[in-house]
Amino acid sequence: MISLKVSTLDHHSLSLSWEGPEEETPITGYVINYKSHLDNWEEVKTVGKKNKFILDNLRCGVKYQITAIAFNKAGRSKPSDVLSAATAGNGNIALFLLI
Prior knowledge:
Immunoglobulin-like
């Protein structure tokens, strides 16, 4: 299983890092799945052995659920635990009217 860590980077990004599973067949890449409470699950694939990823273009002050899976020619690993993290900010948009 993958050991996933998530931290807030800024108002629109989360920083992910992980330790992959020990496999006899080398890891080809990773699949990151994420969603907010308002959205459906989305998937991002990384290729290669890198173990860090910036999840960006997220909404300000919103909490996301994130999980990761390793893959190789033999298939996919078990998913990591689902972690929750929020982007910085409060997510409120102020509207000012000038009269």
